[in-house]
Amino acid sequence: ARLLDATDSEVDVATPLLDALTRGRWLELEGARIPVALNPPTVVAVECYGEPTAGSPLMPLAELKRAEADDVCYCYSLDGEACGTGAAFTPDDEAVGRTLTVEASVGDSCVTRDLGKVAPRWRRPEHDARVAAIGAPAGIRVATYNVLADAYRHTWDAGIHTHCEPRYTAASRRIPMAIDEVLSYAPSIVALQEVDPRWWERLWLPRLRAEGYDAALVLKSGAAQEGEAIAWRRGAWTPVESREIALSIGRADAAEREIAPPSAIAEFLAAHPSAAEAMRRIGTVAQLVVLEDKDGRRLCVANTHLFFAGRATHVRTIQAALIIEEASKLCDATGASLVVVGDLNAENHDAALRYLLDGGVAADDPDWYTGSTFSWGYASSRRARARAVDAFAAADGDLDAALDAMDAAQNG
Fold it and tell me: Contact, 224 vs 188, CB < 8 A?
């Protein structure tokens, strides 16, 4: 037997084994010529989330060893007939009912996966009518969407969305549909809330990049494992500067930098310990990105998901003020105009929204009183939510009794 290198020269038998296998390309053995590869690139598995559906792009994801994502070649077939290649594949209406297969390969290593039969395209007449009514973008179009983090699905199955079977809310089915919906509006900027990092890496980011967007994700403080993301069209915008801030005050493990509160907020928190406790414990963050278009115009996009608890109107108002405090400095430094987007968890009469629209909230505003009825532990944890649900159920349909019972459960 002889070990030959790339020039067909024999590797010296005295060469250490690892060096010999590194240099060797062929093994001649009893007249046969056998290729030699040391730790070759390997496709371990290929995953593809979402049901194959006419009109909806599929983006498979290969698990690799000793290879990069750009090294992978994807090939698609319908009932065994080759039908396409590339990182994404969109079945057409003629593919409905046929079995779609994807093969992922790197060099001599390949893995094939049966994706199932192609389903008819989703029928969404209300959505289609809304998209048609909005029409093509005439200026800067910003789409903001709370995509519902899969990390919170325990609350859906427990009572919020019990009208939906769990199979319909599964992330692998739901998120590809949400991506399609967001992109159908042809936005130049996208702001997302409640983004799971797992599904960001597997679904959102690959699809956004394929559609011509660059993007950034920031996670909330604590164990929630979800956050906000901003994406912008690569050909229309260039990122200039970005900042991430925690919208807590005094949290020891804040995921991002906290900012010093204005004196009015500091005085308010000093006088209201329950509000100060809430601000110490919340995990909310804000994401600020300054973008510049081809004409040199700059836009600062501030994206956030304000604290959810209904009675915490004061907390949301404080968080809105913190965003404006930081965004104003960033806009002054970069010459950008400001747009604030996100899920504000606010009704149109709430102080947080009025602060953003009017620039201030009076000291005697009713929402400061509403906020004073909130304390941490009321609808701020799974245990608190369970107490509230049990209390409501025990009231047997009597709304006044239910509210009294839930108030009592707050400190239970």
Answer: no
